[in-house]
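Lecture notes, part 5. Sequence design as translation. It can be helpful to think of inverse folding as translation between two languages: the language of shapes and the language of residues. The source text, in structure tokens, appears below.
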């Protein structure tokens, strides 16, 4: 659009000429036998006729202006379909895509999970940042392994009875108050529930394969229901209201313990953590006891097994040398290790 303004000698605007130019048309060449089609950021307002794509397996329509899912019935070869960041309000017209394994509908305006019954091969499903208020419509998706429903309006964990293959479940930034209805998910290895309204950690003892649980930014005051037999490796309590942590020492597989920004006021937490042989990374900053000048030094003395404290490296790898023996032959040489400029350790013969 070109705008031209004309003014008189005394500065009074006389008229304005506006020339509207036709919107520039963008042409994209796509081979009929293409297996991957990427139409990201093409300002598409409608899905056209793509029936001539007879081999396509992956189709990306990310960052466009689409309001409706349509005209995809012929693309039965699709296994991966993305609608990330559009203006879609309803899940529809996907029944023919029976080979789909990955479907991404994140950052849209969807109110309800529906019309997915025929997509029984789905393994990965994304609905991040929509307006969904209930977990539903997943009963036939028995192959589902990865479910992401973060940043919605969900108040309850429910209706996952048939999704026994779930490996990773993400429900962050919702309105969930209680961890419930997950005991049967024996394959679950990752449970992510940050930024909800959970106050008590409970009902996870049955998750016998759980390795990572993320509970940051809730209102957690108490920890119970964490069974000693859980194979947890990452335990995230950042930004909660914890005043005391007990029985964490039972989690012998734990490598990461994160509890920054809580209300821990004494050093008893170290008595728990010192008994964890595989512990490597710890966050304890922004607690009352971490304000002490001796905080960092004391933690490092109590926890000799950790390499990272509050996000920074706290130990260098120790020098390596062969064990000394009482008898050595005259032609043998001691070997010591010195750090090279690149940080690697290199052997140096001593004379």
């Amino acid at each position: 659009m070109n705008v031209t303004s004309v003014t008189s000698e005394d500065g009074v605007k006389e008229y304005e000429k506006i020339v509207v130019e036709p919107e520039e048309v963008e042409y994209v060449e796509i081979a009929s036998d293409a297996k991957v089609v990427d139409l990201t950021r093409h300002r598409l307002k409608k899905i056209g006729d793509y029936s001539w794509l007879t081999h396509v397996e992956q189709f990306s329509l990310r960052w466009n202006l689409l309001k409706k899912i349509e005209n995809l019935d012929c693309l039965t070869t699709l296994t991966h379909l993305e609608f990330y960041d559009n203006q879609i309000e309803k899940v529809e017209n996907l029944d023919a895509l029976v080979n789909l394994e990955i479907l991404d509908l994140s950052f849209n305006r969807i109110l309800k999970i529906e019309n997915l019954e025929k997509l029984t091969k789905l393994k990965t499903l994304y609905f991040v940042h929509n307006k969904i208020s209930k977990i539903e419509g997943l009963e036939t998706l028995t192959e589902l392994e990865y479910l992401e429903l973060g940043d919605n309006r969900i108040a309850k964990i429910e209706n996952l009875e048939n999704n026994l293959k779930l490996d990773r479940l993400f429900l962050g930034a919702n309105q969930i108050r209680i961890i419930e209805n997950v005991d049967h998910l024996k394959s679950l290895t990752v449970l992510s529930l940050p930024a909800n309204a959970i106050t008590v950690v409970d009902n996870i003892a049955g998750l016998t394969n759980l390795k990572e649980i993320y509970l940051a930014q809730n209102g957690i005051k108490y920890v119970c229901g964490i069974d000693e037999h859980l194979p947890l490796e990452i335990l995230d309590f950042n930004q909660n209201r914890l005043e005391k942590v007990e029985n964490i020492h039972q989690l012998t597989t734990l490598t990461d313990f994160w509890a920054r920004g809580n209300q821990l006021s004494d050093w008893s937490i170290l008595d728990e953590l010192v008994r964890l042989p595989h512990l490597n990374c710890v966050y304890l900053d922004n607690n009352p006891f971490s304000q002490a000048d001796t905080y960092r030094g004391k933690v490092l003395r109590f926890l000799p097994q950790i390499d990272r404290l509050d996000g920074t490296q706290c130990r260098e790898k120790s020098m390596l040398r062969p064990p000394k023996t009482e008898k050595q032959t005259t032609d043998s040489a001691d070997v010591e290790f010195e750090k090279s400029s690149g940080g690697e350790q290199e052997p140096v013969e001593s004379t």
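The translated text above is only one of many valid answers, since several sequences can fold into similar shapes. Confidence is low (pLDDT under 50) at residues 328-351.
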